[in-house]
Structure formats: C-alpha cells, structure tokens
Design a protein that fits this description.
By secondary structure, the chain is mainly alpha-helical. Helices cover 77% and strands 0% of the residues. α1 packs across α4 and α5 runs antiparallel to α6. The protein is elongated, with a radius of gyration of 22 Å. The relative contact order is 0.09.
C-alpha cells in the first residue's frame, strides 16, 4: 500500500508538467493573439486544462506573461548571479560587454514575445511593476559592480547608484529599440555602449606649455 509520502512526488511531478503545459500554451496564445486578446479561457481551452487549474498555478494572464518572459530571459539572469570580481580593467570591460550583448541578443532572439510584453507594459500595472522590479535588481547589481571597481582602483569616484541607474536605464531603452528592429548590429551596439561606460564621450584637453 502506497503512503502519502509515496504519492507526493507524483503529484508534484504532475503539477510541474501541468504548469509547464500552461506556460507553453500561453506563449503560443500570446504570440497568435497579442496581449489584449489573450484570455485565461483561451489558454485553458488550448491547454486542455480546467479554467480553475490555470488559476491554481498562476494569478492571471499578467502573472503568466511575467513567467513566460522570465523563462526566455533566464540566460541573462544567470549572468547577474555571477560575482563581479574582475582582476583587471580589461576583464571588467569584457564582462560588461558580454552582459550588454547578451541582453540585446536575447531580446532579438525572442523578439515576438518581447513585443507582446512591450504591449503589456502600456496596459498592465502588474507587468509594469514586474519589469520595474527587474530593472531595480539590475541597478542594485550594477551599483555593487561599480563599487567593486572603484575600490579596486579600476573606476573613477562618482555616485555609484546614480551611475548604475543611468547605465541600466540606457540599456533598458536600447532593449526595446532592438525588439522593434531599430538596431541591427548588436555587437557594434554593445561595443559602443561599453565604450561609453568605460571611457565616456569627452577627453580633457592636453595641457599647453
């Protein structure tokens, strides 16, 4: 006779399978219908699961969309989990270049669902709040990276939080430019923004004798 402990892993596995089915189905519905026309009813019907089953896993379509986008951006989030401890200016520059490039490449690769997400940003407070929480986390991570670089003598002294915010908001702006197809050469774009971050626009004039 099976015990409750024996059954629990099976229920957990079924739950994970159902959750993935809902997310995969929702992705297809969002892509075909767009944000505004996507409904829980359409998702549940196409996934062949009960309406209530969808709500047992997610709070609503905005929650589902946030999880879908989190899934496609996992590779970038993994970068953020790495400790920023470069041993040289060149290594720090390369890390930032790869971070910026990865954000743009993923945004381009998943352009269809990111367009849906951009549509949702203009209509849903929950989606807007979720994206803002992501931006805030990016700013916190960038702030710590700048502080590390300053303490290691790799960066000038300035307010690291303001610098991080300016840097992340600029990247955020260009992410949506990439999504809209307004930027084609992503390597060049990432290189220019990295140069801006590490060298700035201007240089001091040479002192005259």
């Amino acid at each position: 006779m099976k015990t409750k402990a024996d059954k629990r892993p099976r229920r957990y596995l079924r739950s994970r399978i159902t959750r993935k089915l809902i997310l995969d189905t929702a992705l297809n519905v969002f892509l075909s219908e767009g944000y505004a026309k996507t409904t829980i009813a359409k998702i549940s019907e196409q996934a062949n699961v009960g309406y209530g089953t969808v709500y047992s896993h997610f709070k609503g379509k905005d929650d589902i969309l946030n999880h879908v986008v989190d899934g496609v951006m996992d590779e970038f989030y993994n970068f953020l989990d790495l400790n920023f401890t470069p041993s040289s200016y060149e290594e720090a520059r390369e890390i930032f270049f790869q971070l910026i490039r990865t954000a743009f490449v993923l945004s381009d690769r998943h352009r269809p669902i990111m367009k849906v997400y951009q549509e949702a940003l203009g209509q849903s407070e929950q989606v807007t709040g979720h994206w803002q929480s992501i931006i805030d986390q990016f700013i916190r991570n960038a702030t710590q990276s700048i502080i590390y670089a300053q303490e290691a003598g790799m960066a000038r002294r300035f307010d690291p939080q303001i610098g991080a915010k300016a840097y992340i908001l600029l990247i955020d702006r260009f992410i949506w430019e990439v999504v809209q197809g307004k930027e084609g050469d992503l390597d060049h774009l990432a290189a220019v923004l990295t140069d801006m971050l590490f060298t700035g626009f201007f240089k001091a004039p040479a002192h005259r004798k």
